[in-house]
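are you around this afternoon, could really use another pair of eyes. what follows is a protein written twice so to speak, once as letters and once as structure tokens for the fold. i want to understand how the tokens follow from the sequence so walk me through it. anything you notice is useful, everything is just below.
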Amino acid sequence: EVKLVESGGGSVQAGGSLRLSCSVKGYTYSLYCLAWFRQAPGKEREGVAHIDSDGVTTYEDSVKGRFAISQSDARDTLYLQMNNLKPEDTAMYYCASDICPVDITAPSSYGYWGQGTQVTVSS
């Protein structure tokens, strides 16, 4: 069973940085895609960044150049480095996984989710 546990959220001022981590257990890294999603109050969950089993990354337009998704060498931790944070980045952030290929824009494509970690950016 795939288990995902996020950490690293917190409160920062606009322009600051945070690095989110997601411990990933029970998956076959050569088969699975991983992603970060976020959900703000009253809004739908949206994909932020995705990495496939070959390490190819994809980003949502509003975070390009500011966020970076990566994995540890052992492929047991997923990261999201977030720089130049903006108030509109405030949301609950979730890591997600499923066997590739997946529709990176559709939360329903991912069957495994973490519990989320809150990111709050103040102006």
User: Anything to note?
Assistant: The first strand starts at residue 3 and ends at 7. The radius of gyration is 13 Å. The chain has a mean pLDDT of 95. The chain is about 0% helix and 50% strand.
